[in-house]
């Protein structure tokens, strides 16, 4: 099947002033779009051409001859997931089942925030910080470059993109400020709750 670029779940200016329409124009319209185009070229005429994005990721993660396919497929998936982790007027305290689970597994919201931010800040170079569920317990993990939890049979609930193109136009090299804004103003807790089910 042809892998397609999904629409953003909000308008290009929907996350402003926290993430500008210019950043989304480049990040979604150029970076994400390029991963989709590259992936389609790489799988054309191969036995992966009819697979879902998730199947492509799982089939190529441990195959060094297919690293380019894995990297592009994982980046397509990660970005689609990331867009849905944000919403206009989001952020702040979680609600519902995820709020209870954060208290149970981290001891409180502040500890969760501290661990997520630390993970994102200490990811050297490009990558992602994730809230995942592993062995029925919430935990924070980070992945380098394109790597994704789903390739390792770990269920992601939330991610923040720490590749520079995610924040550089708006925050330059102030990754910490971008992370604070993401946590306080952008997290889509309804989406996180849906993933928890």
From TrEMBL:
InterPro entries: Mn/Fe_SOD, Mn/Fe_SOD_BS, Mn/Fe_SOD_C, Mn/Fe_SOD_N, Mn/Fe_SOD_N_sf, SOD_C_sf
Keywords (A to Z) from UniProt: Iron, Metal-binding, Oxidoreductase
Superkingdom in the source lineage: Bacteria
Manganese/iron superoxide dismutase C-terminal domain segment(s): 95-195
Keyword Mitochondrion (UniProt): no
Catalytic activity: 2 superoxide + 2 H(+) = H2O2 + O2
One Gene Ontology molecular-function label: metal ion binding
Residues holding Mn(2+): 27, 79, 161, 165
Keyword Oxidoreductase among record annotations: yes
Enzyme Commission identifier(s): 1.15.1.1
Domain Manganese/iron superoxide dismutase N-terminal, first and last residues per copy: 4-87
Protein family (similarity comment): Belongs to the iron/manganese superoxide dismutase family.
Role this protein plays: Destroys radicals which are normally produced within the cells and which are toxic to biological systems.
Protein name, UniProt field: Superoxide dismutase
Native species: Desulfocapsa sulfexigens (strain DSM 10523 / SB164P1)
């Amino acid at each position: 099947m042809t892998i397609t670029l999904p629409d953003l779940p909000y308008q290009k200016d929907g996350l402003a002033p926290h993430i500008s329409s210019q950043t989304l124009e480049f990040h979604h319209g150029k970076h994400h779009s390029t991963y989709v185009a590259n992936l389609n070229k790489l799988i054309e005429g191969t036995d992966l051409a009819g697979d879902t994005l998730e199947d492509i990721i799982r089939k190529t993660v441990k195959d060094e001859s297919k690293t380019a396919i894995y990297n592009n497929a994982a980046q397509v998936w990660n970005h689609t997931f990331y867009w849905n982790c944000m919403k206009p007027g989001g952020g702040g305290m979680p609600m519902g089942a995820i709020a209870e689970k954060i208290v149970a597994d981290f001891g409180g919201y502040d500890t969760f925030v501290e661990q997520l931010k630390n993970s994102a800040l200490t990811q050297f170079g490009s990558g992602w910080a994730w809230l995942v569920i592993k062995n029925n317990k919430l935990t924070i993990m980070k992945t380098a470059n394109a790597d994704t939890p789903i390739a390792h049979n770990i269920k992601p609930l939330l991610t923040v993109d720490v590749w520079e193109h995610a924040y550089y136009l708006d925050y330059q090299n102030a990754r910490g400020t971008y992370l604070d804004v993401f946590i306080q103003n952008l997290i889509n807790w309804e989406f996180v709750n849906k993933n928890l089910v």
